[in-house]
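task queued by scheduler; priority normal; single chain, no ligands, no partner chains; default sampling; output format set to C-alpha cells
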Amino acid sequence: MAAGGISIHAVDVANGRTAVGMRVEIVEIGPVERLVARGEIGPNGVFDHASAQGEGVGEGLYEARFHIGAYFVARGEPQGILDVAPFRFVIRDASQHFHLPLKFTAHGYSLYRGA
C-alpha cells in the first residue's frame, strides 16, 4: 500500500510572507527516533521533500519540528519566545495524506491537519 505522505506549508502571518528558509524536520517516534525528512521551506511556502509523496512514511507516531526561532534570527528580527515548535501526530492509515499548514508569529503558532 502506498503512503499518502506528509506535506507542510508555512506562513509568517505577522509579516505576511511565506516562511522561506525555515528549517523543518519530520521524525518517526519509536524505540529509536528515525529521521524521515529534513530541509527548508521553499519560496512557495512549501516543504519540498519526497515525504510529501509518501517516501519513508508509514503507520506510526510522528513529530514535525519547526525552527521558528532560528527563522527570525536568520532575518535579523527579534526571536520572540519560540524556539522549536513540535507537532506530534499519529498516522493510523498510511494511505491517507497528512497536510500540515503552519501559521506563526514570533510569539505563537497554529498548526493542524488540513485538507
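post-processing summary
- Residues 59 and 92 are 5 Å apart (CA to CA).
- The mean pLDDT is 94.
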